[in-house]
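Onboarding guide, step 5: your first structure request.
Type a short instruction followed by the sequence, for example:

Predict the 3D structure of this protein.
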Amino acid sequence: MSEQPLIARLATHLQRPVPEYVRTRARLHLLDWLACVAGARGSAVAETLAVYPSSKRSFLGNVLEMDDVHRQALLHPGPVVWPTVLGGQIKDLDVILDAAIQGYEAMIAVGSTFDAHHYAHFHPTATAGCFGAAASAGTSTYSSKEGKLANAMALAGSVSGGLWQMRHSHVMGKQWHVEHAITTGENAAFYAQQGVTGPLDILEGPQGLYAATCREPKPMVLGPGWRIEEVSFKPWAACRHAHPAIDCALELRAAGKLTAPFHVETYADALTFCDKPHPTTETEAKFSLQHAVAVIADGRNATPADFTPEAIATLAGLRAQVTVAEAPEITARYPAHFGARLNGFELIDTRGDPERPVSEADIVAKMHMLAAWGGLPPSEADRAADLALRGDDAGAIVAMLEEWLA
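The system replies with structure tokens like these:
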């Protein structure tokens, strides 16, 4: 008998009951996403979508580069999953949380099978995101069982895509990738519910996603836990590949040992994405190891204000004192560990990773900081924390978002 297709196995895996402690963890990720949306209210993307508040929910979650991240899958689940589960008519927050947990699981399970060749060309939040959105929408909107879920993910995967070329221009393509993953997953779930079927071997088939985008796909791991617990939170408003250097700089600064010149050693992908000694835009600054270290050396804390054109101009002198290089031993530990060494001081894992977790209080503080950046009063940050961490009404969260984004 032939082996069951990967997507069919994944759909069965998603049917497991969700423990309450995992729902509690999901609430933190919900609040984290709400914070990211609140902070991006005044962004250029938000202004572009001024008359489309529902679209803004789908676009704004990763504008500030503070969205949650799974290291081994190299993707950001929150910006895809939370707009998807909040886009239907379900009001019971426990149902929404379970659907989100399943979406994280599907997105991470698929994304973790992609190889370095895939990541070199494709944006995994987009390519794996449609699987997570299909799983989330199938559960939160249609209460789909494994057959419908499998077909929803198969349909979505059959049009998966998202090329990294948008990183080379000052454009909004990265945010549109997220929105595209969401709408693709939602549409796939709708049509699967009507009986439309998809290719269940869309991953491993001879003309499937692996054949098209990977050279050495990895095995799909379907373990006993829920992979939302493996997801890292991002404390700082920069690309995650810059976070290890920021963390090292903060530790050295706290010890009174952060002095120029600054030499960063880190893994190869951090250099591929973030070796930008002369950023000119906010996006480039957030993807600049040199700027990230300069921010901390200047006594700042890597908030959104530290990556603006004004900050870019102010920190030019400090950036010029930062050099970067690959450390092969740090590359060897990646992506299981995002590490860096700064002036000889090394961290293997970064603040916000499961090995160095942030607390609920840290996420609430992030909510307050980003609400203020987005022009919301502290009472709105408190409201968001209460609804996400202690509430049971998803409709109240949607209503709050509509007020924020009107």
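Each response can be followed by summary notes, for example: The mean pLDDT is 96.
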